[in-house]
Design goal:
Rossmann fold
Length: 196
C-alpha cells in the first residue's frame, strides 16, 4: 500500500494534528507525515510534532504583512521540498488565497467544528447554542476557495446538553474530532491515490 506524504498545517496546540500523527504511526495507515508547518513560531504543536519524530517548521506570517501570496509561496516551497502529496489543515487559522487553494485542490482537507453547511467561519459553538440546535458536531471537507465551503468527506455529531456553554461544547467535541479526522483523512487518501 502506498502511503501518501502528508503535511499538517497548524496555528496552535495541534490536538487534531496529534490525533493524525497517532493514527499515522500505524504501518497500514494510508498517510505518512513528512512535515508539520505552522504560521506561528510559538505554536505548541511544533514541539509535539518534533517529539513524534516529524519535521516541524514555522513560517511566521507577520513579516509578510498583507502580502498573503508571498507568505503562501514560502509555505508552498516548504511543502514541495518535503514532497507533500496531501495536506490536512488542523486548526490553521489563516484564510488561504484562491491561488494556493487551486494549486492544492483535491489534495487538501480541513476539519471544521460544526455540522456544515451550518456555521461556516468562527464562533461555531456559540452560534449553535444561540440557534437552539439539538446537536453539534464536526465536519471534514475538501478545501475550496470559499471558506468552509468544500465538499463534505465525513461528519460526526453529539447532542447539545442543557447548560452547555461554548467552552463545554468545544471540550466535549474534541474527542469526537480526534476520532473523525483520521478516518476522514484515510478516505481522502483513497480518493487521491485512486487519481494518481
Amino acid at each position: 500500500m502506498k502511503r501518501l506524504k502528508l503535511a499538517i498545517l497548524i496555528s496552535g496546540r495541534g490536538s487534531n494534528m496529534e490525533a493524525l500523527l497517532k493514527a499515522a504511526a500505524a504501518p497500514d495507515y494510508p498517510a505518512k507525515p513528512v512535515l508539520v508547518l505552522s504560521n506561528r513560531p510559538d505554536a505548541a504543536g511544533l514541539e509535539t510534532a518534533l517529539e513524534a519524530g516529524v519535521p516541524a517548521l514555522a513560517i511566521d506570517h507577520k513579516p509578510y504583512g498583507k502580502d498573503r501570496e508571498a507568505f503562501e509561496r514560502a509555505m508552498d516551497a516548504a511543502l514541495s521540498e518535503a514532497g507533500t502529496e496531501i495536506i490536512a489543515l488542523a486548526g490553521f487559522m489563516r484564510v488561504l488565497t484562491p491561488r494556493f487553494v487551486e494549486k492544492w485542490q483535491g489534495r487538501m482537507i480541513n476539519i471544521h467544528p460544526s455540522l456544515l453547511p451550518k456555521y461556516k467561519g468562527l464562533d461555531t459553538h456559540q452560534r449553535a447554542l444561540d440557534a437552539g440546535d439539538a446537536e453539534a458536531g464536526a465536519t471534514v471537507h475538501w478545501v475550496s476557495p470559499g471558506v468552509d465551503d468544500g465538499e463534505i468527506i465525513q461528519q460526526a455529531s453529539l447532542p447539545i446538553l442543557p447548560g452547555d456553554t461554548p467552552d463545554s461544547l468545544a471540550a466535549r467535541l474534541l474527542p469526537v474530532e480526534h476520532r473523525l479526522y483520521p478516518e476522514a483523512l484515510a478516505k481522502a487518501c483513497a480518493v487521491v491515490s485512486a487519481r494518481t
